[in-house]
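Ticket #4471: complex job returned nothing on first submit. Input attached below:
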Amino acid sequence: KQEVTQIPAALSVPEGENLVLNCSFTDSAIYNLQWFRQDPGKGLTSLLLIQSSQREQTSGRLNASLDKSSGRSTLYIAASQPGDSATYLCAVRPGDSNYQLIWGAGTKLIIKP
Amino acid sequence: DGGITQSPKYLFRKEGQNVTLSCEQNLNHDAMYWYRQDPGQGLRLIYYSQIVNDFQKGDIAEGYSVSREKKESFPLTVTSAQKNPTAFYLCASNLGVNYGYTFGSGTRLTVV
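Support reply: We reran it on our side without changes. The output follows.
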């Protein structure tokens, strides 16, 4: 059964630092992996979607990588800003599912001014 | 602007009541989903619908019901059979299997 883990559960860094958030999954047979951002009490905002055939995707200061063989994805945030403070969630679509997503519990990120 | 609208933002339910959460999208997406979010846990799928007039149970469908009479609308009813309904409910949609998800802003349901 596919499981998704995000470590650490919380992270606090000074403004301006580059940082990496981690997402690991137990079964390499996936369709895609998606990173989301959630602000407190709000819905989710899609950040990046990586298909199983891709190695990475970039959007602005964000770069997400995917290594299926090791069951890992990382979200790299360059030059962090206080506005990046949020909970970051990753979700995997298993290869044996048409519509199910398996979710990590998220990493709560705080960027200190 | 295209997007997903969830209403109400906050909802209070008395014991034994059924309540309905609204989800409307104008993205022309075929698939729609309902998730439940509890503190410290990953999102859990309640129901999903791939096309109009069709829907399937997710991992935690007991105590919930849905309908999909229109492509744009996917309301969720939390029935009195759901014994622990206090949670944050999120509606989402997408074009299909290989596409990303768009989420609404959520409804926070509290039992009083």
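Chain B touches chain A at residues 4, 6, 31, 33, 40-45, 48, 50, 56, 58, 88, 90, 92, 97-106, 108 (CB under 8 Å). Closing as resolved unless it happens again.
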